[in-house]
Amino acid sequence: MTNSRTSLCIVAVFAACSSFALAEDITQDWAQWGGDSMRNNTPVGNNIPTEWEVGDFDPETGEWDSTEAKNIKWVARLGSQSYGNPVVAGDKVYVGTNNNGGWLERYPTSVDLGVLLAFDRETGEFRWQHSSEKLKTGRVHDWPEQGICCAPYVEGNRLWFVTSRGEVRCVDTEGFYDGENDGPYQDEPVQSKDEADVVWVLNFMAEPYYVSQHNMCSCSITGVGDILFVNTSNGLDESHINLPAPEAPSFMAVDKNTGKVLWSDSSPGLNILHGQWSSPTFAEINGQAMVIFGGGDGWVYAFDPAGDGNGNSKLLWKFDANPKESEWILGGRGTRNNIIATPVVYDGLVYVAVGQDPEHQEGIGHLWCIDPNGRGDVSPELAFNSSNPSEPISHKRIKAVDPDEGDFVRPNPNSAAVWHYSEQDADGDGDIAYEETMHRSCGTVTIKDGILYIADFSGLFHCLDAKTGKLNWSYDMLAQCWGTPLVVDGKVYIGDEDGQVAIFRHSADPNVAMVDDGGEMLPYYGEIEMGNSVYSTPIVAGNILYIANRTHLFAIEQGAEPAN
Question: Where are the transmembrane segments (predicted)?
Fold first, then answer.
C-alpha cells in the first residue's frame, strides 16, 4: 500500500506525462485570434513558465530595466492603452495598440493613432507600423486614445486586419524590407522600412456600404480558402438611440486577394442594441461548412460561407441568446445584452456568452451551448401575441416580449439549446451564491478535455463541464476581466484589470486546480503581477508565452535571458 505522499507523487508524475507534447506537435504559430477559425485558445506547448518577474520600467521614459527580471526573453514597448491581442506568425509578432509608443518619426506620441505593430519574434525589435489616423467624426466612430483593438489574421506573407477607421486592410508581412511596394499606394509617404506595405483597402464607411460603427470598429478576422469573414461593427450614433445605417451590412464575406465583397448580411438591422464588436468563427460540422457571427442584437447567426450566389447571405440558423422578457435599458441598467465574445466550436457544439460594453459595468449574463445542426430559428423560446396566439411575432429591439401588450412566451420545439448557464446552485444549499452566478462577459470560452473555462466581467472565473453545463468550481479574481483563458501544458492562465495573471492547474476538481491556503482556495500556481492592467489574452507559440499589458508586450520563456 502506498502512503499519501507517494500517491501525490504518482499523480504529479502522471499529470506531467499526460501534458507533455512531442516536439513535432508543438504549436509553432498562433496566426489569428483563437489560433484557428474555431477560436479555442488551446495551443500545444511544453514547460510553459508558471513563475516570472517582469522587471522594472522607468516611469518617464518607459525603458525596461531587466535587472530583476526572470524568465523574460524580451519586452516590446506598446502604447498607453492596448486591447489588441498578439498573434505570432513566421518571424514576427503582431499586436494592436495606440501611438503612445511613438515608433515613427513622422507620428510623434502627440498624434493620436490606431497602430498595428510588428516585432521580430526572436528579439522583440521593432520592424514596422501600420498607422490609422483618427476619423474627423471623433468618438462616435473612433474613440480618442483607443488604438487597434482587434487581432490580425496572418497567412503566408499576407496579413489582414480591421482598422479603427472602419476598414479591412491587407498588408505585406515583409513590409518594405523586401524592397517592393506590393500595393497601389505610390503617392503616400509609406516607402520607409518602418511603415506598413498596404496591398488593398476595403472601406466599410464608404459607398455602397455606409457602415456607421459605434465608438470603434473592431473585429478579429478569420477565413477559409480565399474568403475572409468580417463583422463591420455597425451601430448606434452618439445619442445611443438612433441607428444611422440600419440597412448597412453587419456581416461580410470578402475575397482575401482583392478585397471584393462576395456577400453581406444586415440581419440585426434596427434591432442593434449598441455596437457590434464580436468576431466570426468558421467550422465544418457534420459536412456543413458554416460561419458563425455574434450580432449586436444579442442573436447568434450561422451562414453558409458560400452565400446564395447572388451577393446575399444564406442563413442556416439563428439563436436569441437573451431571455425573451429581458429588457434593454440605456447605460447597461437593463437585462438584455448583445454579444462581444467570439463563438467557439468544440466537439461539434457552439459556445458563446453575452455581454455589454465594459463601460456599462456589471450585470446578469448568460452562457450557452448550442447544437449547430438545426435550421431556422433555433432559439430556446418563441414570442407570441394574444391577438394571434398561433403565429410567432417578430423580434422587438427593447423587449422581445411585453406582457402589457399581450405578448407571451412558449418553448421553441425547434430549440438548439443544449444547456444554459446563468445561475446554478452548485453546492445544493438552496441558495444562489454570488460565485454561482454568470455575469456579463467580454471574454470567450476556452475548452480542453471537456472542461470549459470562462471569465466574466465581474471578475468571476468559472469552470464548467462542457457537455452538461454543470459548474465544477469558480474563483473570484477580485478584479474585472476582459480576456479569455489560455489552456496549455496542463495549466490555465487568465489576466485581469488589476494586472495579475492567475495560473491554475487544468482540472475540473477544485482541489487540484487550486490550493488550500488556510481555508482560502487560491490558484495552484498563484497570481503573477504584470505591472499594468492585462486586457488581452495570453497566448503560446513555439513554447513561448506572450502576454500584453496596457503598455508592453512580454515574451516569457523558461530559463530565458533578456535579448533586449
Answer: none
